[in-house]
UniProtKB/TrEMBL annotation, chain A:
GO terms for biological process: peptide transport. InterPro entries: Peptide/Ni-bd, SBP_5, SBP_5_dom. Belongs to the bacterial solute-binding protein 5 family. It is found in: Periplasm. GO terms for molecular function: peptide transmembrane transporter activity. Coiled coil: none annotated. Residues 66-439 form the Solute-binding protein family domain. Residues 1-22 form the signal peptide. This is Glutathione-binding protein GsiB. The lineage of its organism: Bacteria, Pseudomonadati, Pseudomonadota, Alphaproteobacteria, Rhodobacterales. Keywords: Signal, Transport. GO terms for cellular component: ATP-binding cassette (ABC) transporter complex; outer membrane-bounded periplasmic space.
From TrEMBL, chain B:
Residues 94-307 form the ABC transmembrane type-1 domain. It is found in: Cell membrane. This is Dipeptide transport system permease protein DppB. The keyword Zinc does not apply. Coiled coil: none annotated. Keywords: Cell membrane, Membrane, Transmembrane, Transmembrane helix, Transport. Its main location: membrane. It comes from Boseongicola aestuarii. One of its GO terms (biological process) is transmembrane transport. Belongs to the binding-protein-dependent transport system permease family. The lineage of its organism: Bacteria, Pseudomonadati, Pseudomonadota, Alphaproteobacteria, Rhodobacterales. It is a multi-pass membrane protein.
Length: 523, 325
């Protein structure tokens, strides 16, 4: 699903757009990249930029749907063997031809990048063996049936095997930054700029802009000011509080699109005692969140429309599951839970808490759009149905460690978190957030509430072993339905991102929150 | 004097040791950087491997001893985030911050001292009062807001200067710096003003107070009675005597401008050390935080040393070797 609303005056855009022709573009983003090595650090900030220099076997489009990249044909030839046909005639920026060797080299390099703070090895772990059939055909043997292979491969950049010993420094300095992508590396000045130039020989056609400059501007207000001053052409992360003013500015075009990020509450649903729950007198009590009806009551007590309208200033979409409609594996049978404070009070009374209890909700204050205010709004809504709720927010550097806790569980009882599905389909959040925590398989690793349900686990496992797309989609939707019925977590809204550009340009939103020149159209 | 300097250096080593211990314990207490760095899709095994690779699986004393061992060899560790030597990252961004600090300090001296002098000599005049009232603004405006207002006025409305970032550097005598190109200077002006406003006000007030105090002293009266021209009385007798408190303050403020340009660097997206340190704190990149603080502590120690030596030059009564510092 893609929602684009034009906010600048259309007439003005037409008039100026007709004369404006941009050869160069400067893009301001909120965070710095940590390296130009495409296999060094798996973070959106890096991926959005290195993904311009390099190609992947399969590409994710603006809505994270898979399409051909360096591979033109692919499919399973057995339950655990996949065959990929490579695009012919693709050359690297140094002129050398792309062959199967480069693919193999790239996947072998991934787990072995020294000092990598966050490796891409997660996405090569499913591969047991790669066989080169000929220069343009590869066969991947997986560890058992592994339907996620194409998605995993769409996250890994293909580098040139001509630089077998290239280190991260070599990529940062430039000599090794040689890819097949639409833009070539020119320079990288940490904290200051990244400059790319068009690859006129790109197999997908020469890109629109001659030179692309990325500048990190972390302060929201300064990023907006840089756009207003004409220093930059496109900015990401327009703060919701500035949207109303910018909408009235004829020199600025805003575009908005829903992201793959759901904001939700993790609920401590396993432990007998939960650290931040007491009765109304402040005494320890049995954890009421173990009761599905109490969790349901909390979900019903949250007025999602008010959060969206008031806190998010209309720039969000109320959520009833872990991904917005249109994504693979989303259930069509789930409605956004209706706001029903009376019903919530009744459910609480039925569950044995007619007078409610006391609770603290925790959240970050520098991670998601308006995160602190959302936590405060939820606390007020819960207090209104009798659950006296306090709020504690903290910087993300402190928050996430404590929210994840240790083997005993989270340090918190009810916590506001978000999850962006990097794979663009439902298995990513379902695996990480809702499956019973299992350290060996890595499932449920971010299940901070320790929700555990045998029917859910079984359905998800089945989905993860089903190679047939339609069947898997149905199973993922079924698993989502189970988890939402049992209130394994409480989704509140899907984040909507806002980009700003100068008049004459328009950003076509991406669900993965990336800001790329390839999504900028000249009007 | 040599004894004085040696004693100072020994003290510095102690200060650095205590500082690193505090930072280590502090960052350790905040949390685990792996939680922030690692991909959300990573498995438990990958997470454990990342923790072990960064040495975070060891106890705090073990981590600290390992750090000290490397420190003796001149190795301040490798950044958790960038994977490059922490000291190199800090020093890479040092010139940008220095440019900003030098420019801001120059502004505050060359604007602050004359204005303060005037306000001190003519305290009742309209100009003198205006200067003093104006300096209250310099003190009280929040740096962040003031920076944004500068951007709104000069970059957005008037479009005279760029809104942020560092310009193209020019080269002169083999040194690359923003000072040597117009583009570089135009990028430097707004952040430097933002950083300088507070310091200028400080210098104005300090100069004025010192002038008011000195002007009534006997030796000034005597110099006047001797028939010296006012220019000479002020330029030599007054100015030289008020320099002592000024040098102290300017010296200390220079250190703080370098160390705490964080807000200005953030608002103007200036790629200096301040921006690096704030990002590093958010990501709990301990080696960079420690390396940065070591650099800053060394800088403060050097500045204090230079200030003390300048004292001796400005005021012959001060003898460094006699000081039990």
């Amino acid at each position: 699903m893609l929602k684009t609303l034009s906010t600048a005056s259309f007439a003005v855009a037409m008039v100026i757009g007709a004369t404006a022709y941009a050869e160069d573009i400067t893009i301001a983003v909120a965070s710095e990249v940590t390296a130009m090595d495409p296999h060094y650090h798996n973070t959106g900030n890096n991926n959005q930029i290195v993904g311009l220099i390099y190609d992947r076997m399969l590409h994710q489009d603006s809505n994270q749907q898979l399409g051909p990249g360096l591979a033109v044909e692919w499919g399973p030839i057995a339950d655990d063997v996949w065959e990929f046909k490579l695009r012919e005639g693709v050359t690297f920026h140094d002129g050398s031809a792309l062959t199967a060797e480069d693919i193999v080299f790239s996947y072998e390099r991934v787990p072995n990048v020294p000092n990598s703070p966050s490796s891409f090895a997660t996405y090569t772990a499913g591969i047991a063996e790669i066989t080169v059939v000929d220069d343009y055909t590869l066969q991947f043997k997986t560890n058992g049936p592994y339907p996620l292979l194409p998605i995993d491969l769409s996250t890994i950049q293909i580098v040139s095997s001509e630089n077998p010993d290239a280190t991260t420094e070599d990529y940062n300095a430039g000599p090794a930054s040689v890819g097949t992508g639409p833009y070539k590396f020119v320079s990288y000045t940490p904290g200051e700029s990244i400059i790319l130039e068009a690859n006129a020989d790109y197999w997908g056609g020469a890109p629109e802009f001659d030179t692309v400059t990325y500048r990190p501007i972390s302060s929201d207000a300064a990023r907006v000011a840089a756009l207003l001053a004409g220093d930059v052409d496109v900015i990401s992360g327009v703060p919701t509080s500035d949207i109303a003013t910018l909408e009235g500015n004829p020199d600025i075009v805003l575009s908005q699109g829903v992201s793959n990020r759901v904001i939700y509450l993790h609920v401590d649903s396993r432990r007998v005692y939960s650290p931040y729950i007491t009765d109304n007198d402040g005494n320890q009590m049995f954890n009421p969140l173990q009761d599905v009806n109490v969790r349901k009551a909390i979900s019903m007590a949250i007025d999602r429309d008010t959060i969206v309208e008031e806190v998010m200033e209309g720039i969000a979409i109320p959520a009833g599951q872990v991904l917005p409609e249109g994504f693979f594996g989303v259930s069509e049978n789930i409605e956004v839970p209706e706001y029903d404070p009376e019903g919530a009070r009744e459910l609480l009374a039925e569950a044995g808490y007619p007078d409610g209890f006391r609770l603290t909700i925790h959240g970050p204050n520098d991670r998601y759009i308006n995160d602190e205010q959302i936590a405060q709004a939820i606390a007020q809504m819960l207090t209104r149905v009798g659950i006296q709720t306090e709020v504690e927010t903290m910087p993300r550097s402190v928050y996430f460690g404590r929210a994840s806790g240790d083997d005993e569980g989270s340090e918190f009882s009810l916590m506001l978190v978000g999850w962006g599905s990097g794979t663009g389909e439902a298995s990513s959040p379902l695996r990480a957030l809702l499956h019973t925590r299992d350290d060996d398989s890595g499932l449920g690793r971010t299940n901070r509430g320790r929700y555990s349900s045998a029917p859910f686990d079984a359905t998800l496992q089945l989905a993860l072993n089903t190679v047939d797309d339609d069947m898997r989609q149905a199973l993922l939707a079924r698993a989502t339905e189970i988890a939402m019925r049992e209130v394994g977590l409480i989704p509140t809204h899907f984040q909507v991102n806002t980009w700003g550009s100068r008049v004459g340009l328009r950003y076509m939103p991406r669900t993965d929150e990336y800001t790329r020149p390839t999504n900028v159209v000249i009007e | 004097m040599t004894v004085f300097i040696i004693r100072r250096l020994l003290q510095s080593v102690l200060v650095v040791a205590v500082m690193t211990l505090l930072v280590f314990a502090g960052v350790y207490a905040i949390g685990n950087p792996v939680e922030i760095l690692i991909s959300q899709d990573a498995t438990e095994a990958e997470r454990a491997a990342a923790i072990a690779r960064l040495g975070l699986d060891k106890s705090l004393p073990e981590q600290y001893l390992a750090f000290l061992g490397n420190l003796v060899k001149g190795d301040l560790g490798t950044s958790f985030v960038f994977g490059e030597p922490a000291l190199q990252l800090v020093l890479q961004r040092f010139p940008a911050t220095m440019e900003l600090a030098i420019c801001a300090m120059m502004m505050s001296i060359f604007i602050g001292v004359p204005l303060g002098l005037y306000a001190g000599l003519r305290p009742e005049s309209i100009a003198g009062r205006t200067i003093m009232t104006g300096s209250i603004f310099g003190f009280s405006l929040p740096n962040f807001w003031q920076g944004l207002m500068l951007i709104m006025l000069f970059a957005v409305i008037l479009q005279w200067l760029p809104a942020g970032g560092r310009g193209v550097r020019g080269e002169f005598l083999g040194i690359e710096s923003s000072f040597f190109s117009w583009d570089g200077i135009s990028h430097l002006i707004l952040p430097a003003i933002n950083l300088a406003l507070f310091k200028t006000s400080l210098v104005i007030r300090l100069t004025r107070a010192s002038v008011r105090e000195t002007i009534n002293l006997d030796y000034v009266k005597f110099a006047r009675a001797k028939g010296l021209r006012p220019r000479r009385v002020i330029g030599l007798h007054v100015l030289k005597n008020i320099m002592i408190p000024l040098v102290t303050i300017i010296g200390l403020e220079f250190g703080s401008v370098i160390a705490f340009a964080v807000v200005t660097e953030t608002v103007f997206a200036w790629p200096g050390m301040g921006k690096l340190i704030i990002d590093s704190i958010f990501q709990l990149d301990r080696p960079v935080i420690v390396a940065y603080l070591i650099v800053i502590v060394c800088l403060f120690i050097t500045i204090n040393l230079v200030v003390d030596i300048l004292y001796a030059i400005l005021d012959p009564r001060v003898r460094l070797a006699d000081q039990k510092a």
